[in-house]
Amino acid sequence: MSSKDWIEKDFYAVLGVDKAASADDIKKAYRKVARESHPDHNPGDPKAEERFKAASEAYNVLSDSGRRREYDEMRSLFGSGAFRRNARGGGQPGGMPFDVSDMFGGGGGGDRRFGGAGFQDLFSSIFSGGQAGGQAAPRGPARGRDVETEVALDFGDAVRGVTLPLTLRAPGVCDTCHGNGAKPGTQPQTCPVCHGAGVTTRNQGSFSFSEPCRNCQGVGTVVEEKCPECHGSGGVTKTRTMNVRFPAGVADGQRIRLAGRGEPGERGGPAGDLFVHVKVRPDELFGRTGDDVTLTVPVTFAEAVLGTDLRVPTLDGAVTLRVPPGTPSGRVLRARGKGVVRRDGQAGDLLVTLDVVVPARLSDEARTALESFAEQTPPAAREHLDARVRRVS
């Protein structure tokens, strides 16, 4: 990324966050924009693809605390309206006529105090690691960007673990030129301007200014005959399928990292990582709390009063639970070891909540029997409530 890009591009606006946004806010905003503009969700939409690329570029800078701090410093010093353009192409700090090229020699001639060096030269020397009187380091291998995607799993697959094929449409190495950007049968040539260094250095009086080579864009090589598939970029947007193992007990909202499965690196650099965000579909019977599986079972009033044996399902079979006589509605029974299996081999429990069902209608016989039961049953202990009612009446 050039110095000009860092000045002109507002990465915060791309993600729709404030400059003071936290790292978590930036991550959430990026995930939202990436989901909405992902090429898989917007096939054939070039604007969505550009927005997706812009969001990835912004997140690549703002997610790194060091690069974000450097970006903020540059924007504060040179960007965000610090120099407003005038008719000559210069700027007007504080509303006074001022051409930045007058200060740094951008319009020819230059200020002798800076050896006639241009603004871009000075800027590159400050922020690209150049040192006065020395040669700036050439651009070396660059790590590829991380890729994020989302996968929905059934409840049972998430609990037991599953291996699924995952299809991604993302930038990858061109299969025709194998990433070098050159037409098959040819090779990239050493840049004749920088001689492979990727940077050019100019001595201006007492100073030495370095900047990325404009002829090769800092790569150190040039492609004379470009690959017909990728047009010299070395990468294409491609569809790839891989098998992904989701471990037993993976939870809703969990993120799985697959090292080296993201975008390929540049100039021989390592590939980025693939992060898979897991969404677990709700089950019609079971729920989950940590490593415990939850289940609600309706019981009749008679079963709760007299007690009974219940046969209930589990994730891998069924168990029988004893309901003690006089069990109230809402009591939780526990089937140990019937929950989610943890990595250490231990398992959570199945928690069964009893729900006493009150019938909406009764037959004449049932009503008569219930009235007889009520006459023989001691009243509920409500003396403390009755006392309060008498005081407020």
Automatic annotation (TrEMBL):
Residues 381-393 have a biased composition (Basic and acidic residues). Gene3D superfamilies: DnaJ domain, Heat shock protein DnaJ, cysteine-rich domain, Urease metallochaperone UreE, N-terminal domain. Binds 2 Zn(2+) ions per monomer. A zinc finger (CR-type) spans 161-239. One of its GO terms (molecular function) is oxidoreductase activity. Coiled coil: none annotated. CXXCXGXG motif repeats lie at residues 174-181, 191-198, 213-220, 227-234. Its cofactor is Zn(2+). Zn(2+) 2 binds at C191, C194, C213, C216. SUPFAM superfamilies: Chaperone J-domain, DnaJ/Hsp40 cysteine-rich domain, HSP40/DnaJ peptide-binding domain. Homodimer. Participates actively in the response to hyperosmotic and heat shock by preventing the aggregation of stress-denatured proteins and by disaggregating proteins, also in an autonomous, DnaK-independent fashion. Unfolded proteins bind initially to DnaJ; upon interaction with the DnaJ-bound protein, DnaK hydrolyzes its bound ATP, resulting in the formation of a stable complex. GrpE releases ADP from DnaK; ATP binding to DnaK triggers the release of the substrate protein, thus completing the reaction cycle. Belongs to the DnaJ family. This is Chaperone protein DnaJ. It comes from Micromonospora parva. The gene is dnaJ.
